[in-house]
Every structure is written in C-alpha cells, then in structure tokens.
Amino acid sequence: MKKTINIILFFIFLVSFISNCVPPEKKEITEVTINLQDSIYRKIIDFQDRRLSDSLVKYLSDPNPSYRYVSTLAFASVQDSNYQDLVARNLNDKVAKVREVAAYSLGQMGTNRIQDSLIAAFGKFDTLFPDNVFNSNILEAIGKIGDKKYLNSLATVKSYRPTDTLLILGQTRALFRYIAKGLSVPEGTERILDIIGSSIYPENIKVLGSYYLIRASKEDLNNYRFRITKLFDKEKNPFIRMNLAIAMGKTQDVDVLVNLKKALKDANTDYRVKINIIKSFGNFKYIDVAEDVLNTLKDSIPKVALSAANYFYEFGEPNDVVIYRKAAKKDTNWLVKSRLYNAIMRKMPVYFNKTKSASIWEIKKAITNSDNQYEKAEYIRALGNDINSLDYIYETGYKAPEIVVRVASLEAISTLVQRNEIEKMSKWKSKKIKEKLANIILEVFKSGDPGLVSTATTIINKTKIDFKDQFENYDFIDNSLKLLKLPKDIEAYNDVLKMRSKLLNKKYKPVVLEYNHPIDWNVFDKLSDSTYAQVTTNKGVFKMKFFKDQSPGSVVNFVRLVNDHFYDGKKFHRVVSNFVIQTGCPRGDGYGSLDYTIRSELGPR
User: Fold this and answer.
1) Taking the mean position of all CA atoms in its chain, how far away is CA 161?
2) Does 427 or 125 have the greater pLDDT score?
3) What single DSSP character describes residue 462?
C-alpha cells in the first residue's frame, strides 16, 4: 500500500514538473487594434512614407494582425506592383480587416494579372457571416485593375438584396472604375440607372452612380435618353441632378434639350445644376442654345453667369462677338466681364477691325483702372488672342509689380504662340516676333522665378514652332537650373528639363526627388481623435475632418502649417465651379511652394 502511494505521489510530481517546464502557449491575436502610440506602428508608417517596400514586406506576415493590416494598407500608397503577389496572400488572412485592406491595396497597386486572385477570394469567407466590406472592396478593385473579362458578369448581377448596401456600393464603384477606363457594356448602364432611379438605395450610392453617367459616352447613353430625362425631372438631390444634366447633354437629343432649358429658367433649380446645364449645352448646336445662355449672363449668382461666359469662350460664334461685347459693357462683375472679353478676342473675325480695336481699348482701360491683380491678370490673358498686343503684354504685364499679373502675361504670350499665327506672317515679321519671344525667354530664365520660368517653357514646349535657331547656345538653360531650388521648385525644374530635351532632340527624363520630410510625430501626439479644422473665409465658414490614422503625414503637415499661421490671408487662387478650389500658395498664383515635399497617403475611406 505504501509503495502504491509513493508511486502515485511520484507521478503527480512528475506531471507537475513537466507542466511547469513547458512554456505556456501564446494566445493567437485575432483582432486588429491600431495603437497610434505603438513604436512598431509608427515604424511601418515611416517605411510607407519613405516608400521602402523591402522593409514593409516582412510585416505582411507578422503574427500580429494589426501590423499585417497597417503594412498591407501601406502598399496602397507605395503602389509597388512588384509586391502584389505578396499582398495578395493576405486576401486569405484569418482576420477580416486584413483581408479588406488587401483587396483595397491591390486595387491601387495591382495589374490585371491579379484579377483572378481577387475573384477567387470573393465570397470565400461567407460560410457563417458575409464579409461584405471585403467583397465590396474586391468588386471595386476589379473595376480598377480588371480588363473586360469580368465586366459583363459584374454588370448583370441583380441578386443583391436592398439591404446588401456594401455589395451594391462595390458594384457601383466597380462599374464607375470600368467606365473611367473607357470600358462599358449596356447592362452596366442599365444597372446604374436602376440604382439611381430606385428609392430603396442610399443617397451616397446613387450619387456615385450619377458620376458613372458623366464618364459615359454618347453611345453609352443614347438609348436611355428619355429615361435619364425622367430621372432628371423628378430628382431632388442636386448632386445627382447636376450629373444627370451632363448625361442629358451627351445624348445631343433636341427633345432632351427642351427639359434642360426649362430647368435652366426655373428659379427653383439649384445653381450647381444650372452650371452643369450650361456645360451640357456645349453638345448642342450653338443656334439652339445661344439665346438661353445669353440670358443667363444676367443670373444673380455670379458662378452661373460666369459659366455662361465660359460657354461663349468655348463655343461662341465669330459673328456674334458684337453681342458679347454689348453684354460685357453692361456687366458689373469683373469675372464675368473679363471672361466675355476673352471670348470676344478669341472668336474675333479678322475683318471686324473696328470691333477689335474698340475691344482692345476697353481691355486696356480695364487693366489701367483696376487695383485687383487677379482682374488685371484675366484681362492680360484676353490680349493673348491678339499677336499685335505682344509689346503691350510685355511692357504692361510682364513688367508689372504683381507676380500674378507677370505670370498671366507669359500665359498670354504662350497663347499667342499656340494660335499658330506667327508662321502665317511674312518671313521678315515672323523672324522679328521669334526674336522678341526668344529675348523674353532669356530674360525670364535669368530671373530664377519658378512661376515665370515654368510658364515661359510652355512657349516652346506647347508649340510646333522651331526655336532652335533663336539661341546662340543653351547656357541660359543650365544657368536657370542652377537658380531653381530643389525640392521647392521641382515642377519648374522638370519643365526646364523638358524644354531642353525638345531643343536638343533628346528624350526627356524628369528628376525624381529623394525623401526629404519625415513625419513629425510630436505634432501627431498633440492631436485628439476629435480635432478638426475650421476655415474662415470672406464667403463663409467650412470645416475639415482629419483621418489621422490613415493619413498621419498629411494631417501632421496641415496642422503644423496651421499652427505656424501659414494659411492666414492666403487666396483661393483657383476656383472651378462644381469641381475644385485650391489655396495655400504663398505667391497667390499656384506656383509657390515650401522647401519640402510630402507623399500621398491613400486609404479606403
């Protein structure tokens, strides 16, 4: 009995000893948790910022899914297709969020060689619960990188339930991405119109669908012109309606035009919709829409009136310049007025000598009387349509104290050259003008001003005129390159290299900047998740939301500049209705910059 007890005790001891000697099994991490303070997280982001693909790769298979997630997403910004096969492995990751960013990143970085891997992964993890974020990202990725192989199948899917909003969003995004590449099928257009016309789908999906129609061709839309018109007439959302207006214009159907005209005259029509209606008129015969556009010059909203002036600049008829001049003389808004004078000078018939002389006199008077540099610049650009105004443009424009006006003067000179009138002149006069242009270029290049230099290069880069015999040598180009500062003046620097390549008949090879501006994590640490920017302008206030987890470098750069009061007093130097506004240029002309560059940071939001 005693012996038996001893054996049992020994066995218990042995089991206890062995169990204590065996290290505890590590618990597998199955969730992505982004700790913005984590040093490894920041290391991965820094690798992304530096575009160090080799350093990122090892984290694609890290035991921690959070690191797999961040490194996989990093390739969406790095976009190194050499690593798409390694990123594609994470389509099969055990953790849903890793799979989701793998699909997104492959759409940003991949080639159509990877499309079969994406399709194979679709629905693979839906055994118990659908992973519709993953599936939605796959659909969009196919739209981005896929060829026509899967387009028809994707377009004809109608089995998604109304509650499958993520799948419908992915399908809509995919069809949009396809048509942005010029690939479409009738079934895709029908599907988009079904989505836009249905009341069961969310507004954001319908808005996205309407952008598909902007990219569509006349051939894509012609069979659906009346259906699109009905959607336009009943639609209340201005963001959808403005895109439907563009689509209606593409059909070039006169019956459709009736509805567009009616909406343009309707006082209740949103001004953004009116702007796109005017844009759509460019697809119709001038005689059928000219009167409607002319009446819109009187619109109380300047953006709408400016769109009407832009129409005459693009599509106006030479014989109607007298009408445009009459309207310009009445208009009090300088943006509309100057644009009309641009249209007048651009469309002016050669035999309208009196109207031309009077118009030039009025333009010069407006320049003399204005104390607004942007107004002066617009009028100077108008003179870029008259070769005989070259000396005035140089003396009044290029020698002006305002840099915005000086840049505009070179844009005007570039326009003069691109009109191809110089080669039609007598040999003697053509030679004299080329000599003037060459001397202007030499003077500009000595200035070292990046905006002036960059604009001056277009005089050569954007014309068929041969300037090779106008310069004794090209030392002025090399000297200009020495005056430009990198990385600050990289755009101007590459423009000069492009010009030199053209003059020397050599292949153009742009300079690619090295990494030069690391992320300031000290600034990052001071930002809360709720931090936002409030922008106050003389036209109102708007707010900007930050996504610091996905774009830390961009957010930190912006916040640092705000803290330095960099944006205080800056002009919105570029405003294009229904498209874009740009600000932040230190010079106010779009050519200013700082002494560093930042990289793109792309995320699925």
Assistant:
1) 33
2) 427
3) T
Kindly state the average pLDDT of the residues 446-474.
95
Name 87's Cβ contacts closer than 8 Å, sequence gap at least 6: 60, 72, 75, 102, 105, 106, 109, 110
Q: Which CATH class is domain 515-605?
A: mainly beta
Q: What is the pTM of this model?
A: 0.91
Contact 149, 114 (CB under 8 A): no
The candidate with the shortest Cα–Cα distance to 72, out of 110, 35, 37, is 110
Rounded Cα distance between 398 and 452, Å, is 9
The pLDDT > 90 percentage for the chain reads: 85
Q: Where in 513-577 does DSSP place strands (E)?
A: 532-537, 540-545, 572-576
Q: For residues 180 and 197, what is the distance between their CA atoms, to the nearest angstrom? A: 21
Query: Could you give the angle at the alpha carbon of 543 between the alpha carbons of 212 and 170, nearest 5°?
Result: 25
Question: Which 3-state string (H, E, C) describes 346-387?
Answer: HHCCCCCHHHHHHHHHHHHHHHHHCCCHHHHHHHHHHHHHCH
Q: Which amino acid is at 471?
A: F
Span 404-431, average pLDDT: 93
Tens digit of each residue's pLDDT (9 = 90 or more) over 185-210: 999 999 999 999 999 999 999 999 99
First to last CA, the chain: 74
> Taking the domains of the chain in order of start, what are their residue ranges?
515-605
Instruction: Read off the pLDDT of each residue in 214-242 and give the average, rounded to a whole number.
Output: 96
Strand partners for 583: 572
